[in-house]
Amino acid sequence: MKEIYIADLVRLDENKPFDSIYLVLSKQQRTTRTAKPYLSLILGDNSGQIEARVWELFDPRIATDFVKGDVVKVRGSASKFEGVLQLKIDQLKKLAATEFDRSDLLPATTYDIGTLWQQLEETVAGFTDPDLQRLVTTVLADPAIREAFREAPAAKQLHHAFLGGLLEHVVSLLGLAQKVVPHYPMLMQDLVLTGVILHDIGKIHELAWSTGFEYTLEGTLLGHIQIGASMIEKTIDSLPEFPPRLKTLVLHMILSHHGKLEFGSPKLPMIPEALMLNFLDDMDAKMQTLASEFQKAARQGKGPGEFTDRVWALDQRTMLNSRAWLGEEANKQP
Amino acid sequence: MKEIYIADLVRLDENKPFDSIYLVLSKQQRTTRTAKPYLSLILGDNSGQIEARVWELFDPRIATDFVKGDVVKVRGSASKFEGVLQLKIDQLKKLAATEFDRSDLLPATTYDIGTLWQQLEETVAGFTDPDLQRLVTTVLADPAIREAFREAPAAKQLHHAFLGGLLEHVVSLLGLAQKVVPHYPMLMQDLVLTGVILHDIGKIHELAWSTGFEYTLEGTLLGHIQIGASMIEKTIDSLPEFPPRLKTLVLHMILSHHGKLEFGSPKLPMIPEALMLNFLDDMDAKMQTLASEFQKAARQGKGPGEFTDRVWALDQRTMLNSRAWLGEEANKQP
Amino acid sequence: MKEIYIADLVRLDENKPFDSIYLVLSKQQRTTRTAKPYLSLILGDNSGQIEARVWELFDPRIATDFVKGDVVKVRGSASKFEGVLQLKIDQLKKLAATEFDRSDLLPATTYDIGTLWQQLEETVAGFTDPDLQRLVTTVLADPAIREAFREAPAAKQLHHAFLGGLLEHVVSLLGLAQKVVPHYPMLMQDLVLTGVILHDIGKIHELAWSTGFEYTLEGTLLGHIQIGASMIEKTIDSLPEFPPRLKTLVLHMILSHHGKLEFGSPKLPMIPEALMLNFLDDMDAKMQTLASEFQKAARQGKGPGEFTDRVWALDQRTMLNSRAWLGEEANKQP
Amino acid sequence: MKEIYIADLVRLDENKPFDSIYLVLSKQQRTTRTAKPYLSLILGDNSGQIEARVWELFDPRIATDFVKGDVVKVRGSASKFEGVLQLKIDQLKKLAATEFDRSDLLPATTYDIGTLWQQLEETVAGFTDPDLQRLVTTVLADPAIREAFREAPAAKQLHHAFLGGLLEHVVSLLGLAQKVVPHYPMLMQDLVLTGVILHDIGKIHELAWSTGFEYTLEGTLLGHIQIGASMIEKTIDSLPEFPPRLKTLVLHMILSHHGKLEFGSPKLPMIPEALMLNFLDDMDAKMQTLASEFQKAARQGKGPGEFTDRVWALDQRTMLNSRAWLGEEANKQP
Amino acid sequence: MKEIYIADLVRLDENKPFDSIYLVLSKQQRTTRTAKPYLSLILGDNSGQIEARVWELFDPRIATDFVKGDVVKVRGSASKFEGVLQLKIDQLKKLAATEFDRSDLLPATTYDIGTLWQQLEETVAGFTDPDLQRLVTTVLADPAIREAFREAPAAKQLHHAFLGGLLEHVVSLLGLAQKVVPHYPMLMQDLVLTGVILHDIGKIHELAWSTGFEYTLEGTLLGHIQIGASMIEKTIDSLPEFPPRLKTLVLHMILSHHGKLEFGSPKLPMIPEALMLNFLDDMDAKMQTLASEFQKAARQGKGPGEFTDRVWALDQRTMLNSRAWLGEEANKQP
Amino acid sequence: MKEIYIADLVRLDENKPFDSIYLVLSKQQRTTRTAKPYLSLILGDNSGQIEARVWELFDPRIATDFVKGDVVKVRGSASKFEGVLQLKIDQLKKLAATEFDRSDLLPATTYDIGTLWQQLEETVAGFTDPDLQRLVTTVLADPAIREAFREAPAAKQLHHAFLGGLLEHVVSLLGLAQKVVPHYPMLMQDLVLTGVILHDIGKIHELAWSTGFEYTLEGTLLGHIQIGASMIEKTIDSLPEFPPRLKTLVLHMILSHHGKLEFGSPKLPMIPEALMLNFLDDMDAKMQTLASEFQKAARQGKGPGEFTDRVWALDQRTMLNSRAWLGEEANKQP
To answer: From the CB coordinates, do chains B and F have 3 or more pairs under 8 Å?
Structure first.
């Protein structure tokens, strides 16, 4: 197990040497303004990323046989440059696959995957619609899907951009949907829940997460909406006597879940369940974004009355942590 | 009590005389293409509106002393013109205020106002924040506000455009909020609920509902957001030692609840509770719109596979009643 | 064969009786302002549509056993109402399927379908890429696709909204592409041509054309882009050793051919061939629209210096037939 | 009084030591690329801002007991880095409040505040509408408002972002309005002038200007439009028998003065006086912006034929100083 | 001289015969629903337009030899159809050019053309820039331009759509500019005034006003901005030693005066004088629009508290006549 | 002739001295962070641009008498700073006009100008419309136009931003137009070709290309659309009996060729030939952009599966070189 995570470095003494294990996210040869060459690396682990520099390029303690995607053990020290923490690497060697635990090296959900998966399966077990139940059951039983679904992030960056993020997002949405759907009797609950479980399933092929989080080439050219719709259509076609109208509705929910053409959905939601899926997905993504932004602001040392940085996913708004700010006032009162 | 509601006319034999009581929403003298003068009225009751024509202008059985806003008893018959139902009036007299029940004459919520009000008060009774509790309690205890709040529609047209619509919308939102808010621990529940109860309170001055639903002149020039913020600010200023920060947060929620500047909010939601209020308000309004559109489509005689007319509040989309359409398929199966 | 087409009626003497055969596109019972009931029909044939009215509802010469979609033989006469031609029907009977030729009753391409199809097949025969050749050959060899492809319109309205319109549009595009593509050596010609042939193939399920041109319910909820991509993916998956990258490129061209997210493409064109396909499709559609608008203006009796009505597909612009206007000047000169 | 203003530094010999007094606008510890720590300060006075660096952190002549918002006396020298002037600080001590004149330290109007105030009061004295006169008189007589109104900037940045900027902007607008309003007899002059005086009054609470110009938290969450409307409504409510319609019109002018919903006005101008106020405000702001940009271009050493930088408030346009450019041509002529 | 203007008809007894002279703006043969043919005319004079119908097509008292653009003398009577006034024509004959005064037949400015022209010439006489003075003087001295400039409307519809409208608009703008320009010392007054006089001069070729107000074909394809710039460039090129830079500035002002690319200006205003011209033009157009809308509302019988119809040129806003509404309150007070 | 082009430097050994000749595009005095002064130059030749630094400011081998626009001979060496190549200059002297070949110093078309010009003239020789033929012939025969047309770039940056770019773009478009136009019989071919040749002719005055590519001041204030329309109008006016309608059509094509108001065309294309010109111009510009981006990506060392940087002219899209990517797969196969 790792000892020093990137998120810990900020509390480490500047310039004090330490050892740790990181994933190489990028590797580039560069030169300073005064023509001194150095190696610039982006190193990552499950707590964040950091730039590292190697100045002694020909030091035998610095391995040269590693590339982007490798995992390395380094000895170095941290210091701030223009207010940004940076590593200076004194020793570096490439590790074999057996020498580290990959879960240490990419950010991951803080929930237990097994528990999340169980919640997902229990929800499906509770379906009253037999056709939707066998559809979702069949999808989740596919070993390749199952394995990827338990690992995949929900995004390259932004909300749920961590291992297990897709599953965490889906299970959070299931909990939310089970509360909201009964408020509107017009909605067919199992259809909404099916949409919740399947809407982002194309992301298991749109994204790659072995070394950082990237779009695949297929993902860039086709997108997770088309990939997901194709996956589900094939599964449905393999199920005997699946009702054709229900097939159309399920595919429509996947196609329309981004809610707007300009967000990449080729169709707007045109049934109540698709409208609800888009509402829930949007709400959950934004609330999760907000939580992340408040954590980030706290890490930046911002106080209760300070706004977050501008948030891209919220139209460049800045947000205030109302609870913290209000609490501060209460505490000041006698 | 009235015997023949406007919504009943479609099932009445064409040309068969009947008597009923209606509110005069509009009164105009007109001429046919062949120069024949007639009186064109828009009559309404709580089930809808209809055009009515008086051809025998000088018949002594036709009263002339009535104006827009009066209630009249008419004898006439219904028939279709270009597919639209229309009344021909043979007798008409103005009624005194004692001769009718106003609740028959404007569309109203189908819920019991007393019950809704009780749900509202019970919610407030459950607040744990004493400041928000005394704020909301004080507002609801104001006799003028209380009376108007129990009567007001939530809109001139579109969603909840009926007597009691404001209260029905608020209580529906409270139910929804009590389910969704606990899903996000970051949210201060009482602040969200306070926003739910107070966000549209300016509508009691923005709208007038004695004869049809209209904007007041003050409402047109100032808007319910400004009117509501002013009402609540005055109430807060009357409460001793109300925390200043909480005042700012409550006012911010009222100002930002439309969610976008172009929808008339002078500020975007910048705290989690305001963001949530906007989500819930938008979701509930659209789901209620959808329910109305499906009812309207059924009244239009549309079948399960037919889409609604284009819905203005849903970006001119047409919507499909998925449950009905799917049900039809199931019924067809052996 | 029919004797009097709807487009001929404008040259017929007003009020002069004639017989003809039409398709019933709509049938509604209505009432005049003076309460007189009548039957309002929309009748169509391959030259256009017209409103027809039956005033003698109980005349035994007027059949009552027909519905929308039936073909009827009528005797009647034409006259103008508010400048718009209208039929008065005196006799009407429903025809059996053997009593008429369907091609008379819906607008159709003026080209010979067999010739168009041969041009299409010759183009495919000239492919140098064996994978794309076997893909397109396989698609066109499917009897269900082949039959529909030879019949389908390219749109419900707007450009190429007539039987055979899809095929005519594709063949016109092929001719254009074969001229333009060699101008840009960067382009893989067979890939562009494959995109031209397959991009709209989903329309054979998105549209229905047995009685007028309508969207199917599946078409409304899924769209021809998704339907077409799914059809082609299934065909590719059935071909042994089809190159995976080529599959991705072909699907990308179908998905992106509308050129903009807001036009319903879930992906923008991101390869040169997809960019070119979008250019050609857009150009051909607009030039065909323009030709139709000039024909329509001529039918409206507009002179050489008069602009067309506003054209929806050209951003509500009005257009001038420059050749006609310039020719008029030349003719005026001595 | 200060001897060396920031705007003077550009004309000072590089590296020549000097003494001066500045306001500390920001203070941060940083490290160079070669790990050398230093203190980075943003210092300001009424002529501008500049970055300053302290390299000898432990030199006893460098005080450490100062924070953002303090005023310091420094000895240092200026030089350019990447074309941008920068200070190197050799000595630094914190000053007591009695040791400097705050008006030296923040940019301020070049007009005399007393004179501007007198012009404002004379305008109000000339009102013919007694209700508007007592409203404005009452507002300006409030000691807290009066003091803040004489000091407040009109913006955090952009036009009139200096002490007294609000008053200067209002008095400039009054002069403009008194010229333009008589051109349109439809306008009630006193109502326009009242709008001019009161439209931005909420800025005295929206902005803070003790150390630089910042938004207050209340200002960020509520905005000067709402704050100003609330202030004026309270004043009106305190005036006996103020005409209710006039109250609505005055509040409408404040609410609508940004002219567009997307600029944060919850209502569009719907009366002629509000339309005119928005025109005048917009025109004056843009002309003042233009003047500043031409001054800035001159400071940048641009010649008569060179365009300004892109101007954010003018849709990123670049502007040409036409008078200067034309004058250059005239001068060249014999 | 005419006796009965169209604007007078609303006060005439319905169905009472009268004689008058009108311009034929449109002439169409139509049929009623019951197949009765009639002639539908749009007649106009300087006070407005009205639909007129001729029912007795073969009556010898009804001339048949007239076309759109002719002037006719009619005997008829007025009545309302669906609330809209309409004429019934009993006699009609075509007039020779000597039998009427054209100024009676198209709406015209209420100002004296001679006086307006004198104001224009006096302004030019006051120029201090000799180059601009000889430019404008030369333009106004061209007999063809002079005659057209004194007659032309400023628009086909919307603001200043009447004979002399262009001149009235320019003279109003000159008055406004002479007040506003001195407020901004940066502005070269004669350049602004030159822009005011010349900016719309292309409208004398863009519009035709002999029979109603229409765009010319050249106007539709080129626009008054291009036509005007071309006219002024030719004049400048004919003036010896006109300063080249001044030529560029004058042309830039014409090109940019619409203020936005999407309003048809190929360049945004990039000099202060062009910015000011756009401000003044926009302000004057909107204030004149507002005055027209209030007059229209009064003609519609709207009371002081009623809003105008939605105004296209003001983003579909409705406007309130604040002076009238406020006056009503004052009058009500004891 | 030059020996070392800027594009060659990337392949040169770092730090190895070499001699070459460059154009000075910019010259500025700067200081490093540690206060060391240096001279920063932007040097260019026909293969690209590069930053160069002179550290020994007082070395007698460094000339000081040169300015922006001069051509200099330098001795120096190249190295990378932050991954970007940079020159260090050791010796520098200014060259006289006879000591270099300007065509080496600005990027230029790779086609032979004489050949391009001949293709242009042959196309005109093939016109069948005598009026258009003498118009274009007259324009091209003007010595000033002819010389500039053979040299001008088509843009300051983006597509065809090199000497001869305008001519290359026009000749490419002519070839394309001659293929596409016959596909649409509605089009008058000579009118389209005239539009192709003349649409951008204003660029010879809008741009300056003696030292780098810049907008002229006249170009910035008037634009090439207006300048070009004015040039062509003057030529037409000099041709006896040129048909007036044809003049309007030619000018309309120049004015509308950008296709949208927001792209600076004061008129939308309203005739078929103008619509086609806009299509062809847009297509050719984007295909040429794409070719440049793929070349740039190759220079950046990107592999077949890597996307280009975001392309401004393609809505910030990234593009994939499909041919290269597909070829890679083929090569991998056995």
So the answer is: no
